[in-house]
TrEMBL record:
Name by which UniProt lists this protein: DYW domain-containing protein
Domain DYW: 492-584
GO molecular function (one): RNA binding
PANTHER family: PENTATRICOPEPTIDE REPEAT-CONTAINING PROTEIN (PTHR47926)
Record keywords, A-Z: Repeat
Phylogenetic lineage: Eukaryota, Viridiplantae, Streptophyta, Embryophyta, Tracheophyta
Amino acid sequence: MLAKQTPLTKQMLSKLLRASSSKPKQFKKIHALVLTSGLSVKNSLLTQLLEKLILVGDMCYARQMFDEMHKPRIFLWNTLFKGYVKNQLPLESVMLYKNMRDLDVRPDEFTYPFVVKAISQLGVLPCGFAFHAHVLKYGFETLGIVATELVMMYMKFGELSSAEFLFESMQGKDLVAWNAFIAACVQTGNSAIALEYYHKMCEDAVQFDSFTVVSVLSACGQLGSLEIGKQIYDRARKEDIDCNIIVENAKLDMYLKCGSTEAARVLFDEMRQRNIVSWSTMIVGYAMNGDSEEALALFTMMQNEGLRPNYVTFLGVLSACSHAGLVNEGKRYFNLMVRSNDKNLQPRKEHYACMVDLLGRSGLLEEAYEFIKKMPLEPDAGIWGALLGACAVHCDMKLGQKVADLLVETAPDIGAYQVLLSNIYAAAGKWDCVDKVRSKMRKLGTKKVTAYSSVEFDGKIHVFNRGDQSHVQSKAIYEKLEEILKKIRNMGYVPHTGSVFHDVETEEKESSLSHHSEKLAIAFALINGRPEHPIRVMKNLRTCDDCHVFAKFVSRLTSRDIIMRDKNRFHHFRNGACSCREFW
DNA sequence: CTAGGGTTAG
């Protein structure tokens, strides 16, 4: 490498650094050379060295180097902060900040974007407040970049109103600030708000770009707003916005999340280029829509094209097996992952949850339980939750109780699990147990999520709760519902009162059932929607048995397709049958 | 010399 007698020069060091692309061992050698050479090396060179170490993720060595420096200037501190953020070490970042202040080093405008991002990663709100105060103290809150980071931080903490307030009070918001906020809204499940801000952005005459389009399309997918999504995409095309593969993937996903598998497939086949995200989106989408055969066929096609699946692709494949009850195929794909010898492709907790779901849904509850006990990872709430869900489907009270007890310990704040358990008790007629669960929930303060359904019409999202009378067309909706119920009763519809988990008389049960949010949404769509269009209903939770039967009858009665997306999957109702074949 | 935004899954 280097001849010993050659004196080391700074130029040579620079060259060496550039040559040693990403081999941490070489950095250490070079660093040793620097230390022994006696050269007074400028910080700029050390910064280069630091940057390289950060790139390969050797933060320990980077820190060691930093600590050996004499009075490092603020930009070196910043470089280290950057490294901690890049390598997801928020705690180290906070400690470094403390060191910095102990040494009376004054942070500059570049410090806070890194530090605030670290706090977002750390996820401790009081810490966030403290850093916000520091930002104010040094007068950096007027800087767009720092303010944007603060907004993102509050969004990540679920402090939507704080984030909104901060965002609104930003002066001269640029495109990136808008995009960041809209994206954060979508990522935190506030898609309706994301669309609001997209419109505000247009009013403010800020020209949107492809980043905006991706977030808005994603929002439309979440909301099931096919028409709004199409409009925005067409507008982007008209305004010559670069619709790259990420935009196309987002559009593909929107179609699938709105239940338009055919349109999605046309788009997929026409795409100029497809990457692993395109394929995975399509496979996951088919699985969600109950088209397991297409999902698995596409997986095979992808492999034939020589593309390597990633862990998301396998989630799609496994959920396709789960929705179709393909136990053996699911096991085969799961083993494919285990045997792949690819570290990145080893089954993760989500895959185990998928397998538990697959086994449990097929009635193999004991096998699912054994599967969990044997898994090499620590089972989390999601995995036990999958088993509890299966216990609910198959009314297994004994195992259900056992699993629910485990869940109370690991995830006491998730009301959905308690609701599942109380549903199991209710189905068995154990009302005293139902009451016990309810009062326990009250005591612990666990809330259940309120069920709602939504329908897009005339560029707006119409939301319905159970027994909702707040809609302007409420009277017409209830009349329509009565009319339909009467007609389908003559066709043989019998209300499935098992879906009511309260200890009340049959008559009351029926009236409670008939006002479920899905039914109101369907009635609304029948009044307003065009007969040639399918009815699209989005539900935030799993749909109940009675609404499922109801939708089947309505699809036959009215000869309309009903596409219902619930929390887990799609139900495509046509002429009295559902695509899920009663397996959900 | 350094800083903020996007797609699948959760």
